[in-house]
Fold Polar amino acid transport system ATP-binding protein.
Amino acid sequence: MPTTAEDQTRPDRGGGVGVQSFEAASLEVSGIELAFGKNKVLRGVDLAVPAGQTACVIGPSGSGKSTLLRAVNRLLEPDAGDIRMGGESVLTSNPDQLRRRIGMVFQHFNLFPHKTVLDNITLPLRKIKKLTKEEAADAALAQLDLVELREKASARPGNLSGGQQQRVAIARALAMRPEVMLFDEATSALDPELVKGVLALMADLASAGMTMVVVTHEMGFARQVADQVAFMDHGVVVESGVPEKLFTAAESPRLQQFLSQVL
């Protein structure tokens, strides 16, 4: 069963959203396999994230990191294995029902350019959660307050910076009150000077007790924010553990090689 953020024991990382608590669920991925034709992209991935904790997934391009997130959210259907939230398998549930429980933030924002910021957030609330227009607007504005963009509610995405667009995408996902959040390289499409603000927001969400799986190339973020880090290569988790051990005493030669190139 989901637990509130206040039930979690986690390190104090400073900051924190504060104004919002989360119904956080545990996430367990067991033996997930997925292939595109003859190309096996995931080869038996295991990853367990306790409720309210953050797991960062690192690794070279093409290692299966983004495919793993899409399998968790069932944007791609696994060929084998199981995915459990709060101890219950999600592979037999309706994918649309699952996406009410899992929020996902993509690299390229995926906002509707012809709709206002407010409409981008209220649309799924009205279509999926069946909220009234007023209820959806109230929920959306609360999330825009959280990401400090209420004044942009009437703007179109094209009039925002990349960092602001990504914060809107995060607000849209949070408005659905998910139990787990997935971030797929959320800062990789941003100009360098815009990265810090988005990472700070993600760190605040982690401190507030959101269960998060973050695919990232930001090693400093992974080291400082994650409860655990998983290194993927060729469709498997090669090594995982607490950040300090993984970054300073890696056991796998492949991880050692990777870190020597990125740190």
